């Protein structure tokens, strides 16, 4: 079994800092997408929980798609919210993306190391990629 890393060079975070981890890692048909925040071009996009949730999820999906996986391949999602009051709004956005193929999920409340409201990571599986 080989391991493939996506987005190792050139990944930047807030303030243009180099990020010392892969955007995603693939092994044995599994794809693990690193936690994504509502960031574009290395900067957090301002907005409420709805806008930030859409962008964080979309960032995950963009990485997943670039690695050759599809929405139906998503088996698990981890969500970190900075405020429990965001839970219902996040669920509405989550349903927009995953209503047809709902994955397993965990959602927790915690502080984040960047100034945003949400972070999302996904795990995918595709037996054809083993």
Automatic annotation (TrEMBL):
What InterPro entries does its record include?
Answer: RutC-like_sf, YjgF/YER057c/UK114
Q: Which GO terms describe its cellular component?
A: cytosol
Gene Ontology MF terms: deaminase activity
Q: Which family does it belong to?
A: Belongs to the RutC family.
Task: Write the protein's name.
Answer: Reactive intermediate/imine deaminase
The species is: Pragia fontium DSM 5563 = ATCC 49100
């Amino acid at each position: 079994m080989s391991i493939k890393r996506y987005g190792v060079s050139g990944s930047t975070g807030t303030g243009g800092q180099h990020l010392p981890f892969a955007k995603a890692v693939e092994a044995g048909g599994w794809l693990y997408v690193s936690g994504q925040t509502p960031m574009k071009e290395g900067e957090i996009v301002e907005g409420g929980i709805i806008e930030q949730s859409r962008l964080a999820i979309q960032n995950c999906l963009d990485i997943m798609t670039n690695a050759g996986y599809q929405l139906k391949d998503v088996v698990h999602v981890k969500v970190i919210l900075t405020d429990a009051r965001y839970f219902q709004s996040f669920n509405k956005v989550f349903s927009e993306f995953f209503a047809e193929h709902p994955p397993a999920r965990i959602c927790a409340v915690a502080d984040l190391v960047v100034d945003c409201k949400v972070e999302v990571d996904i795990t995918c599986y595709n037996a054809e990629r083993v």
